[in-house]
Amino acid sequence: LHTDLDPGSSKIKYILSGDGAGTIFVINDKTGDIHAMKRLDREEKAEYTLTAQAVDRDTNQPLEPPSEFIIKVQDINDNAPEFVEGPYHATVPEMSLVGTFVTKVTATDADDPVYGNSAKLVYSILEGQPYFSIEPHTAIIKTALPNMDREAKEEYFVVIQAKDMGGHMGGLSGTTTVTITLSDVNDNPPKFAQSLYHFSVMEDVALGEPIGRVKANDLDIGENAKSSYDIIEGDGMDIFEITTDAQTQDGIIRVRKPLDFETKKSYTLKVEAANIHIDPRFLSGGPFKDTATVKIVVEDADEPPVFSSPTYLLEVHENAALNSVLGQVTAHDPDVSSSPIRFSIDRHTDLERQFNINAEDGKITLATPLDRETSTWHNITIVATETRNHSQVSRVPVAIKVLDVNDNAPEFASEHEAFLCENGKPGQVIQIVSAVDKDDPKSGHYFLYSLLPEMVNNPNFTIKKNEDNTLSILAKHSGFSRQKQEVYLLPIVISDSGTPPMSSTGTLTIRVCGCSSDGTVQSCNAEAYVLPIGLSMGALIAILACIILLLVIVVLFVTLRRHKNEPLIIKDDEDVRENIIRYDDEGGGEEDTEAFDIATLQNPDGINGFLPRKDIKPDLQFMPRQGLAPVPNGVDVDEFINVRLHEADNDPTAPPYDSIQIYGYEGKGSAAGSLSSLESSTSDSDQNFDYLSEWGPRFKRLGELYSVGESDKET
């Protein structure tokens, strides 16, 4: 850089600022020469904008305005082409025509495409010929050979080169790989592995069971290899069927109808396999199908008996005689050996054992009487068993319909009771009755009604048959009276139209009642006439109930008053302390401390530990006892106890229940003997207590006490 103001003196100083100033670019402040201090890369930065200015070296004052200038980096071919998206993968259908588009590749060059040929690229194939070609400038890859077969080679590895400088010598280059896969088309027909297949099957095979598989191989894959199988010829087209296994593409042969070794022992089928998806371009190569022959041999099996009919229907009249034949079932062994058959009834279907069957000929007979009115149908199962192989069993249902016979007499549908008004008119319908019959004639029920012969000239009632098979009861006259006769009984004979006809007699009860003017029944009791006028039976019952209630109240009141006035003090002759209660239970001796719960003798009010005092105000003033001085030795204890007893018995303030008196003095002895107030009917002297020693250890102590007493007496 140089300014026109520079006279050649050293007073001017050049200053540089902007992109890269001081680092990449440095200026000589005296001469204005600019130097690049680093290697430049156009691909990193193509140009730099800098500002230069001349200033006074001493004062740093600008001598002229700053000037801006641009430094551009000139490109050289220092970058090779690159395939950024590589490596590539492409697919093209097999058998494609020459020139079929496969894919397009793209390379980039970082050099300047405008300046020179540094970025001008040319494409070529290094590997992959002669199968594929590439356009030099567009980089489009195409097929170069016709009829490339996937089944022969499926995958190709192609190397593509991109070279700059227009492909001339000295240019830089880059490469990439393209993996090209041939996709499948349906260009191969299915082909059976063998032309003849042999299978064998038992004649008792279940329907739908597979008996064999055939396979037509196809070199294609996926949808193009799928085939359908069909039976196109043979003597078993209606006996067998073939389906395709979706997983393995096998043809599965199954049985459609039952096989019979005795009828036909072998079958020959012609099976065809054809592609499902056909490519029309390759039809000229031949049909996409193949055929094979299948021979099936039926083998004999031990089969169960076969009944002549899948079901049987028998009819029998309900009055059929016992052991009469109702019908017959037949069965045979389909095998060549033809084993004899024995018949039986499955008793789970004939729990009441109403039927029997002849084991040899299959004739069904009646074992117990039938009643159609109880059960119209009987469904039993007949079992046929081979005598040579009891495991071969067949069953057949037999329906037995019980036919009706006229064995039930008709009777009234319900118990009828008719009501006749005293003010009824002659010819008035009293009651309409109907009949039922348990039988079921084919032509329907038709009943005949009549009166007993001795009632034909009945002066009171008559009957009339209605069109709906019912009967109307009519009154012959009026003026019926409850006082004369309250109830009439009218026997009616009911007959059916069966063969032979059955009949029964039903009695209709006709009650004479009092009715209102419009015919409404009000009262049917005869005692209504003998009751006083204006007082009905209901009123009398109500009055009687009130009287009884009053009597009950009076009795209760008197009883409560008497109970309230009873004295609370127990009389001498009723002193509970003098009562002896006998228990026949034998105690456990002195060792038994739990034989009796003393709590049952306690006052129930004192169970919780609190005894309420029941003080009674005495009618007479009782003088309190004077304190007794200690009893000297030698006093009469018997007299002392009697005095105390007399005081307790005559004390009105004493409680009305037993109390325990504690006596703290025990005498040395007494001529009176026992201190008990309960006298025994037998004295000790009359008894011998030696037997107590024989009662066991529990009575040992008691025996010793009594034995000591006896010894004292002797002393």
UniProtKB/TrEMBL annotation:
Gene3D superfamilies: Cadherins, TCF3-CBD (Catenin binding domain)
GO (cellular component) term, any one: axon terminus
Annotated GO MF terms: beta-catenin binding; cadherin binding; calcium ion binding
Keyword Signal attributed: yes
Keywords on record: Calcium, Cell adhesion, Cell membrane, Cleavage on pair of basic residues, Glycoprotein, Membrane, Metal-binding, Repeat, Signal, Transmembrane, Transmembrane helix
Domain of life: Eukaryota
Subcellular localization, as worded in the UniProt entry: Cell membrane
Domain Cadherin: 3-83, 84-192, 193-307, 308-412, 412-529
Membrane topology: Single-pass type I membrane protein
Keyword Transmembrane: yes
Transmembrane segments: 529-558
Segments forming a coiled coil: none
A Gene Ontology biological process term: cell-cell junction assembly
Biased composition, class Low complexity, residue ranges: 669-686
Role played: Cadherins are calcium-dependent cell adhesion proteins.
Protein name: CADH8 protein
Underlying gene: Cdh8
